[in-house]
Amino acid sequence: MHDFINTNVESHQNETVFNLQICETSEFDVSLTKSTSLSFIVSKKNIKIVTKKWINSNQESMIGKSYIIPTKAFHYFLPIISENEDELNIQVQSFGLRGELLLNERLLIDNNKHNSKITTFFETLDENVNKALRGLQLHCM
To answer: Among the four residues 6, 25, 40, 59, which has the most C-beta atoms within 10 Å?
Structure first.
């Protein structure tokens, strides 16, 4: 297994899903893999954020979190990306209409040759989510 990054967008009539999947192999043991999946599911009523992390495709080792932000409260996402020689640190914050912090999630990724794909996903996240929300609101009128 090799390191890989997949990003995709799934557009459905009632929701749009932005997915990021990362698989990292250990530099010390190539049979050891760490997988991370992150989904932003945008509907007219809410934005659901789902993170899943697991080791060696073992579902028993999976750690998952999910958050739901009502779209009426959502204003924007702010990704904060920092990088050193060992890892990429991504902190995603979401703020409400009155400036309140709705989400503060951190993601650590071992540095690899796919970092530009990851940073592009997060740098365009706010714009993409807002476009999807506008499209869903127009479609549902």
So the answer is: 40
